[in-house]
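Consider the following input, taken from an annotated entry for SHSP domain-containing protein (Panicum hallii var. hallii).
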Amino acid sequence: MATATTARTYVDFVPPHSLREEPDKVALRVDLSAEGFRKEQIRVQIDNFGRLRIAGERPLDADGSRWRRFHKEFQVPETCDAAAIRARLDKDGILLITMPKLSAAAAAAEEPKAPGADMGGDAAAGQDHEPAGHASAQQAGTAAEEEKGQEEEDAGAAMDRPGQDDKHHTSSDNAAAAPAARQPAAYGFAKDRRRMLLAIFAVMLALVGAGLLARYRLTMDQSAETAPSGNSIVSLSDS
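Applying the prediction step yields:
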């Protein structure tokens, strides 16, 4: 004999609810007093993204053809401890969900840290850190300016000396001074080469710092995207 299956017809409703914040917790109150629900007919779940789902359904007649149901979602505040959420249905049919707040130390630990927050002791003292490549570029620029100033002073001193001793120079002195006159050019070339190497080194440091920062951000984004989406059930208790 074939058994006839009764099709269900659902009657949806939205229960009255209120959210109240207290110094140590956030309380969500859902009024089911006029609906006649029992605790085994109500389901409270929370997912890994902090969404609180409340649903319930019960039959309206003996043959189970008509059912009464509801469904609501709430976002758990970031200041609350999702693992410590409790739910209970009192004797008057009021569903009370308690979301305890995090302590000050736990809230600070939950806050995401900015990249580089743990690099060096100056951050703890409230000083700003600059990327390593940027700091090296500034140091290279300062060193280049100092070398340029020193080179200009040397060139000025070299120009002053011939004017003072023109009357006493002989042809042999001029021949001996010719190799010496070529030395500043060679010295300047060495300085230009050193400045070029410093600039290349500073650029390489800046690129390495930028690459590390980009890799850190990519890792954080991937870890957030691949978070498991399982639901945890909050058990209901009687008042």
